[in-house]
Amino acid sequence: MATMEARVPTAEKAPAPLVPQVAEAPHDVVKEKSVISPHPVPTPLEKLDVSKAPPSPPLADSKIPDPPGKRTSLGPTDRDVALAQVEKEKSLSFIKAWEESEKTKVDNKAQKKLADVAAWENTKKAAIEAKLKKLEEELEKKKADYAEKMLNKVALIHKEAQEKKAVVEARRGEEMLKAEELAAKHRATGTVPKKLGFLGF
Fold first, then answer.
1. In sequence order, what are the residues at sequence separation of 6 or more whose Cβ sits closer than 8 angstroms to the Cβ of residue 58?
2. Which uninterrupted H or E stretch holds 53?
3. Which of 116, 131, 165, 186 lies 20 to 30 angstroms, CA to CA, from 100?
4. 46, exposed or middle or buried, with CB in 10 Å at 0-12, 13-18, 19+?
5. What DSSP letter does each residue of 119-181 carry, written as one string?
């Protein structure tokens, strides 16, 4: 019985620590303490305090303002418009360069044609002037030859005229001598000539 009594008090003393077990009550809390998170778990009141919350990383779709001095990022539509504008300016620049190149080619071609025409004109004019000069030289030579021939003819005519004059003078001298001789004869004989030229008999 003594042993039983001794055991009973020990059995009665065993349920005494039930109060501390109530303090330890939820097993979930004990399990949470065993796993220590790097950040303390905020209480509902701490969740409402925005100033204590760490900054959240930015979302992919949200726009981050560019630092001053840099161009702001463009959206897809703005980027397409900007690219289209760049392509348009590039095309216009290319077209302008092509236009100036074509105009330069046309101008150079026209200048070459004009130079060819001027060279052709100068060649033709030089050929005609050379031909004209040759004709003038030929005409001068022909003129000199013709003048010489005319002078020769004039000299020949003058010579013939002198010869004819000489014949006339000679005949006149002969006839004068003959008249003198006949006159002397008539004087000597005392006869009168039958025919007198000045009297018309």
1. 64
2. none
3. 116
4. exposed
5. HHHHHHHHHHHHHHHHHHHHHHHHHHHHHHHHHHHHHHHHHHHHHHHHHHHHHHHHHHHHHHH
**49-105 per-position pLDDT tens digit:** 555 555 555 554 445 555 554 455 556 788 889 999 999 999 999 999 999 999 999
Asked if 74 and 82 touch (Cβ cutoff 8 Å), the reply is yes
Close Cβ partners of 24 (under 8 Å, ≥ 6 residues apart): 30
pLDDT in tens, 4-43: 444 444 444 444 444 444 444 444 444 444 445 555 555 5
- Cα dist from 137 to 140, 143, 151, whole Å: 5, 10, 21
pLDDT (0 to 100) of residue 191: 86
| Global confidence as pTM | 0.38
